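Worked example 2:
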Amino acid sequence: MIDPSHEPISELPRMPYDPGPASELLTWPVALDRLENARTYWLTTVRPDGRPHVMPVWAVWLEGAIWFSTSEDSVKGRNVAQEPRCSVSLDVASMQIVVDGVARRVTAASDLQRFADAYTPKYDWQMTVVDGAVAFDDGGGGNVYAVRVQTVFALSDDGSFTSTRWRF
């Protein structure tokens, strides 16, 4: 996991247009606010035959990573088990963000409880920790994964087209 108190390296990504001077980079606190408060995150995984698979997930930003749950039998669950490299994207409050990282399964009861404690109030959906995974009152649930961030790319949608890449 990344150190949540450590601000990553900001840089201007190469773009097919002139995005303006580096002094106009987006700030990490603004991007972090979007990562923490988004409702729907789009998880992109890769099938064994190389085809991408994109699905919405509810997730939380916790300890410098994006945490989500899914059934081990779901396509995304099977994909992450086979190939943990993935991307997570969101479009919120005039900013698009893409996170590239590596997912790892979370199994420690204390970590799962921290996830449940963050997830439950965010989505108003009660979850409990059960046998190295989580369960919902409706019978759903599954494994929990934390996507360790490698890079974050953000593009402002406020008309300025300001873009920034953060490396960890």
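Residues 35 and 108 are 24 Å apart (CA to CA). DSSP finds three helices and eleven strands in the chain.
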